[in-house]
Design brief:
This protein is of the alpha/beta class and 385 residues long. An eight-stranded mixed sheet has the order 3-4-2-1-5-6-7-8, sandwiched between helices. β13, α12 and β14 form a beta-alpha-beta unit. The radius of gyration is 22 Å and the shape is elongated. The two termini are 22 Å apart.
């Protein structure tokens, strides 16, 4: 009988400029969850680069830590009054990071691949680093601004080259994959969604619903989020005086909320700010309908969180909407207040089952499910050992 243990794929250096850090603890948590998923199927260390506003001309700091999941995380902090210049200085970044890797990583962790997150600047720099260290290169894309990048950036040719020469590409939604397809000829392209923790979002039958019909939306309230599709639709319904009395609760913060206040809608709108995951789960269970208006989205975690809490949804056709929204859990609305009005009326007049809504996506976005997708991708790309 063989005593050979199951072999994991190559050692992977998970490389990201979008990653939670000491200054922005909630930034790009989805990248950290991808790292956690990948660590289940390979030996993994993280290299996180943080180029941030500072009070001096230049402040450099390297740190190494073991995070709460046991993942060794190498952090490079660049703080400067002119941080935007450092962010676009890709040749400098490459030379600096090559030195960091040689000094602090490569001498004890001989990674066989670099897994870059987001094309610019990470994927472009990662492509050059992988060439130097003669290892495989994977790019996972989350970025909503690819079209703009490929129109105006000085690095757009290098961006195409990074996509084309990568051993594998992944996107978090089909919509994002379709956008990427315009800019590469790479055949090793797969969908790997974000991770969503079902232990934090679930149907809680013990929680009572609000006394009146309550619509809610959750977002960082900046463009391309567009709540006015449904706010205007609700105004029309309010003015017609045949719709049940209702209120709207907008969770989160951002400059769009000032415009919402300025419009002085005739129905109650509450804006309690950001909520912790536990408080958000409770809030979603208290509400009746989830609304999500946006002009572009690469994934949309909040849609899944709402469905996990059993809420019927009316959403824009963005991110993973077509993959998860169906007649048993809600409707997709076109980009007009009139269509939103019809879909909102329809969702209010349709009987939904919270447990059925939640069960439809049970396990699809779990850590294990995403880990399996990464494992399969690595095997298909010939990265497994």
């Amino acid at each position: 009988m063989s005593n050979t243990k199951h072999k994991k794929p190559n050692k992977v250096l998970f490389f990201s400029y979008w990653y939670p850090n000491a200054v922005l603890s909630n930034q790009a948590y989805f990248a950290k969850q991808h790292a956690q998923a990948l660590s289940k199927v390979c030996e993994l260390e993280v290299l996180a680069v943080h180029i941030l506003p500072g009070k001096t001309l230049y402040d450099f700091n390297y740190q190494c830590e073991i995070d709460e999941h046991g993942i060794r995380t190498h952090r490079v902090y660049i703080l400067s009054k002119f941080y935007k210049i450092f962010y676009v200085a890709l040749p400098w970044q490459y030379l600096m990071l090559k030195k960091i890797i040689k000094l602090h990583i490569r001498n004890r962790f001989e990674f066989g691949s670099i897994h870059s997150n987001v094309l610019y600047p990470c994927g472009i720099v990662g492509a050059k680093l992988s060439k130097h260290f003669q290892c495989k290169h994977v790019i996972t894309e989350h970025w909503s601004k690819l079209d703009k990048f490929f129109k105006v950036s000085l690095y757009k040719k290098l961006g195409r080259k990074a996509y084309d020469t990568a051993d594998a590409l992944t996107a978090v939604s089909q919509q994002l994959a379709d956008t990427m397809q315009k800019y590469h000829h790479n055949k090793m392209m797969r969908l790997v969604p974000n991770v969503i923790d079902a232990s934090k979002f679930y149907v809680d039958a013990q929680i009572e619903k609000h006394g009146c019909l309550t619509f809610t939306a959750v977002a960082h309230w900046h463009a391309p989020k567009n709540p006015f599709y449904y706010l205007e639709a609700l105004k029309q319904l309010f003015d017609e005086k045949t719709f049940p009395s209702f209120k709207v609760i907008l969770i989160g913060e951002g400059d769009i909320l000032k415009t919402v206040k300025d419009k002085q809608y005739p129905y109650p709108i509450e804006m309690p700010g950001n909520l912790s995951p536990d408080a958000l789960c409770r809030h979603l269970n208290q509400c009746h309908v989830f609304l999500h208006g946006s002009d572009f989205e690469t994934f949309s975690v909040v849609m899944v969180e709402a469905l996990m809490c059993g809420l019927p949804c009316v959403v824009s056709d963005v991110g993973i909407a077509k993959q998860i929204i169906n007649e048993q859990n809600g409707f997709i609305a076109e980009s007009s207040s009139q269509d939103w009005k019809q879909k909102i009326e329809k969702v209010v007049n349709t009987k939904f089952d919270a447990k059925i809504i939640a069960s439809q996506i049970d396990g699809i976005y779990s850590l294990d499910a995403v880990a399996k997708k990464f494992k399969l991708l690595y095997e298909e790309a010939g990265i497994s050992s």
